[in-house]
Amino acid sequence: MTMELSAVVISRDEAAERLAEYEERLRAERTAEDEAIAAGYRAAARGLSVISLQRTIGSGGFHGNGLPRMAVARADTRTCFAWWDGSSVIYGDTADWRINQGALVNRRSVRVPLAADDLPDIRPRSAWNAGSAMVPIIPPRYRPKLRRLRGHHILWEVEEWTPVPPRDPALLRHIRGDLWAVLAVWDLTDLERLVLAQRSS
Would residue 27 count as lying in a domain? Predict the structure, then answer.
């Protein structure tokens, strides 16, 4: 099953035109919102898809245990843990709720606040250790250099939050707020999934 990404639909030409407007007219008076919009247009002008992580996670649906079908983790981690904090899903590199104290994106976690309409009927009561999944590998043709890897994230569909190798990940770079650029999407081969299945931790 192919992962659905909630992309902002805009052509490269329109993005470049709008970016020029933000850069030219707001040079001296640019707000944080203007900066976020300009950053999104900059990515779209480069031909990258820009997605809302909140919409992608919310529209991806939930497993019977209340955990989302989609996961996101920093690209240099091996395991992703997920838990609920109110109406937000927290994804982290360890099962320690203290790694996220409200930041949308920090060195060790990603917080995805979901709209009330997107919340599942059931959420695990054990907020700090609800589930874990293996983080996919990045094929060499898409893999950033090691020193830059930590600045990227991987988004993928989780199979019941069990140690089952994923199938169709996407490489992301955080733009600002809820905006993310999609750098690559690929399918893991049977061989790559077989090797991942042997991962011990």
Answer: no
